Amino acid sequence: MSEKRRQHYVPRFYLKNFSIDRKGLAIGTFNIPSNKFISTARLKTQAYEIYFYGKDNRIENSLGLLEQNSATVIKDIIRANSLPNLKSKEFFTLLSFAIFLKSRTLYAAEENRELVEKSVKAIYSKDSRLKDHLNNIHIIVNDPTKIALRSAAQCLPIAFDLDYKLLINRTCIPFITSDNPVIYYNQFMETKKAFATGTGLACKGLEIFLPLSPEHYVIFFDKDVYKFGSRKDLSVIIRDLKDIESLNKLQCISAYKNLYFDHSISREAFTILMNNAEKNRRRTKLKVDEYTGPTDKEGMHSLLHFHRTDIKCELHLGFIKILKKARQYELGNRVLHVRNERTYHLYEEFLDLVDRGKHKISDFYDFLKQQTQKIDSIGR
């Protein structure tokens, strides 16, 4: 019963890979708010909240099933130093684990609370009766994690076209992780200085970063934008310390309150890491942009645009190259740049069928194959 009460938003099996001697008992921890380095913290007391997903245990049990499957896949990857084949069952399991882990953390819950509060207050600010009382209005969001997980479940299929690579660390510096370990990034859109967010699951140039152990790191990416090492290999050997430092810096930027590591990294190393990362840490989780313009009736209209605050740190990794055809891509005046237009529009059509009860969200891959076959047959 106590385990169901203590619900971990970063799974214990995952943190065990970063624990001291891999025993799952103690783990190195750096607490960011207090700037405190703890060389041996109890692992079981990390990254959890009491009834974080609710007392009925429905979400906890569902996530537990995904964790069981994911633990096996990750264990096999670490043991074999290699990834399962692209588009295999194991690939989809690991991708699902990454996307749901991104959405189930305390940071994600706070992000959703902030989204609701900012959106409601932005709308209320247009009401002359309320705009002067916004500081006295407090928005309460029940079960914000459920909102994030529902969105993840709905959007997951649009990421199925991503490729992936395993990074194998052959340096003296280990990979670290955090209480917000999955990072959505977009080096391509950052170099293009694109407007707003570039880290939606359908976005062109998306990268998803997830450390698996001090020696292993997986990255999902848009294969039409990036080249990772050799195209024929699913793994990349990392020997450059700068690459390891850059990936660890990402964790320092992304972390909500705690960083996690094994015994082979020192207090001094963390001091340097955090000093380098501090200027890139997000001060707000979401941004609200407002655009105004005249209406047909000589009034003014207001368009509110809400988007998450992306991590941007001018990331450079020696083993990643942006393809020539991607560099030639023109942004134009569009806000949204979709990775695969045809798949995206098919997905919108599919969601409409889900809303009408004609499909379950888990049917998308089969639906996509059926539609592709239809299009191919018409072409013949």
Entry summary:
The chain is α+β, with helices and mostly antiparallel strands and 380 residues long. It contains twelve helices and 15 strands. The strands form five sheets. It has a five-stranded mixed sheet, with helices on both faces. A four-stranded antiparallel sheet has the order 3-2-12-6, covered by helices on one side. A two-stranded antiparallel ribbon has the order 1-4.
| Total discrete domains | 2
Strand fraction equals 15-25%
- Number of DSSP helical runs: 12
Residue stretches low in confidence (pLDDT < 50, at least 5 long) are 376-380
Main sheet characteristics: 5 strands, mixed
Distance between the termini: 60 Å
**Widest sheet, order of strands:** 7-8-9-5-11
How many β strands by DSSP?
A: 15
Outline the fold blueprint.
Layout: H1 2-5, E1 6-8, H2 12-16, E2 26-31, E3 36-42, E4 48-50, H3 58-80, H4 89-103, H5 106-124, H6 144-155, E5 163-169, E6 177-178, E7 183-185, H7 187-192, E8 207-213, E9 216-221, E10 226-228, E11 235-238, H8 241-254, E12 258-261, H9 267-277, E13 286-294, E14 300-308, E15 320-322, H10 324-327, H11 341-355, H12 364-379
Parallel strand pairs: 5-11
Antiparallel strand pairs: 1-4, 2-3, 2-12, 5-9, 6-12, 7-8, 8-9, 10-15, 13-14
Helix pairs in contact: 3-4, 5-6, 8-9, 11-12
